């Protein structure tokens, strides 16, 4: 993983570099203390993860630099260092494509854990993208072997049992949708619900509500497991791939009695994650 650090505090930059290059198979390809230099260097480098301070300089905040980078097609994973902010400002940060937040002043133990999580997340996404490219190029929709289809859906059922939601009301709906995605090898956004499930928009809203209630149970169960087994790679994979880790992190804080942002369930992220997970049966 290639990291870049943008922070006006030199001590922060040095501490983060040491954490990254000592504990992980990663390198820091550059650092900067202000936005202009950072922008000119970042657009010329291959960067997987950008660590950026919310407060950069008088002329430009961290979120403004992120937006500039996105406009020119530079889209690494973003980890932001910021002080205690209101829930509204925290939501604005997450809505700007920031994956995780480290509170300042820096706690090196927390920073190490956040860096480990975002590096694992980035590596997982790279691996899943490679699997998807191989799968989508080799198997045409509607012509997938039935044995493979059955293995994929059985693997998805195993994942749902692992999450502790196999008996929830929304699981039947989840499996119907997954059957279509596996059979046609399509993502969630490509499903024609009216044609394939014979439902109206009103019916779809009801189904989605039922699924979300089931997924809230799954998030709570997974967060509890993450608290009990924080170093388990399988739990981390599921947290990232199915729910986006920030939701699991917020639920863990909630379970510990701490203040936390509310969980935001993305059905598209969940179902696409299940589809990617189903490809593992071919490996």
From TrEMBL:
Protein name: DNA-binding domain-containing protein
Superkingdom as given in the UniProt entry: Bacteria
Pfam families cross-referenced by the UniProt entry: Response_reg (PF00072), YcbB (PF08664)
GO molecular function: DNA binding
Keywords: DNA-binding
Chain ranges of the Response regulatory domain: 2-119
Gene3D superfamilies: 3.40.50.2300
InterPro entries noted in UniProt: CheY-like_superfamily, Sig_transdc_resp-reg_receiver, YcbB
